[in-house]
Structures are given as structure tokens and as C-alpha cells.
Hints:
Number of helices: 7
Largest sheet: 8 strands, mixed
Structural class: alpha/beta
Mean pLDDT: 94
Low-confidence stretches: none
Strand content: 15-25%
Bound molecules: iron/sulfur cluster
Radius of gyration: 18 Å
CATH architecture of the domain at 9-182: Alpha-Beta Barrel
Strand order of the largest sheet: 1-2-3-4-5-6-9-11
CATH class of the domain at 9-182: Alpha Beta
Order of helices and strands: EEHEHEHEHHEEEHEEHE
Helix content: 25-40%
Amino acid sequence: MTSLFHDIIFGPVRSRRLGLSLGVNLLPADSKLCSFDCIYCECGWNAENPGARRFNERPEVRRLLEQTLRRMVAEGTPPDVITFAGNGEPTLHPEFEAIIDDTIALRDAWCPAAKVSVLSNATQLHRPDVRQALLRVDNNILKLDSAFDETVRRMNRPQNPAYTVRGTIDAMKRFDGRMILQTMFLRGTCEGLPVDNTTETEVAAWLEAVEEIRPARVMVYSLDRDTPCRTLEKIAHDELQRIAVRVEALGIPCSVA
Ligand code: SF4
């Protein structure tokens, strides 16, 4: 079963890779709100959750984040990372930039060693406020699952018909390497149509895109939790590892989650 985050602040969750991570959900607590509708989304399909389309408000996010950081610091367990993720795309929030500034100020005040991470699908990079905010966080993690529009349409289902991979790559290039590229690899079928971004054609074109974007690093991963589409296959760690080796051959560090 896919599931939603029912709180504005969630976790903390301890992971080997990130340490103690505290999550921030700017999207509605009762529904998913995203400019993509990925076939592997852990929050389910957009249409499954037609709740109130209300973003969590900036003062409330700030108040709850401060309250949580204060408690974690008092308990001697400050977070290693504050991660913007949750029920959809955080950069859709109209006050995303101001919320990032609040978060950086709270981090500096309560746990200066913690990193601020944003997991984004890169659909809002045309907005100057979003770009500015992403340049200020420690980990600007942007998704690109394929170099082909057709595959992105199948895997990520962009809600904007004008979406193009070319536009996304060009917007990513403008970060001059101040970003981390994240890619989900999978294969299988969804609603009767085959989907596979691990073929040689896919991986070779994706590597060309990686080389063009030149992110600070790349993170590749595969399915972990339940997905709305049940006929998808998780890619084995050693296959992801072989892709990572090809990224590293370009001189770009690559981790396998
Ligand atoms: S971008 Fe993230 S939140 Fe949006 S549909 Fe895809 S996996 Fe879900």
C-alpha cells in the first residue's frame, strides 16, 4: 500500500547514508500534490487523493520545525539533515523560498552542523525564486529519470504537457554543478505498457545528459517501498553499481542507494 505523510514535520528517520534525517512536508497532509505523477510514487496516484489542495502555511511550518529542533537538541539528538520531501513536490509551494530561508535560520540557530536537503522533480526551475532557494540549500537534489521525453512521460507523467527533457537539462546546467542528480531505475509494465530505463539505449543517452549537466554527484536507486503500479521490477544492486561505474568514469561521483 502506498501512503501519505500525515504531518508537516515527520521522522526523524535514521539511515546509514544520511544519518538522522528530519522530514518537512510542505504539501497537504491529506493528499498528494505534485507536478509529476510517477508510476513508482510512494504517495500513490495524484487522483487517488483529491483532498483539500492546501499547502502547509509558512508560519506553521516554521513554528513546528523550531519546536521539533528545540526538542531534538534538548534530547541530545540534533538531526544530521533536514529534508524537504513529503506528499509531492515541495517547490510548488508559493512561499518555498521564504520557507527555505526560515529553515536555514532555524538550522543556524539550533543545529548548525545539520544539512538542508531538498528532493525536487525539477519542474519549477523556471521560477527565479525556486532557483535562488535551491542555490542556498546544502543538497539540491533534482530528479531526471530518462533522457527521452517518451520515457519520462511514461515513468513520471508530467502534468504539464509542455514538459520536455531538453528544457529540464538546460535548467539543470544553469546550476553550474551546484546540484545532485537523482535517478530511479526500474523496468516492468504499467497499465499494459512496457517501461524500462535500464536498456543500453536509455543508459547511454542518460549518461550523455549527466555529462552535459555535470552535477556535483549522482544518486541512482531503485524501488524500495510499495508503488501505485504493482507490475514494476526492482533493479538489483549490482546492475545499479554497473551504471554508477559508468558515471564515475565521467569524473562524477555516484552513489547507489
Ligand atoms: S516527483 Fe516524487 S512526489 Fe511527485 S509523483 Fe514523482 S515520486 Fe511522487
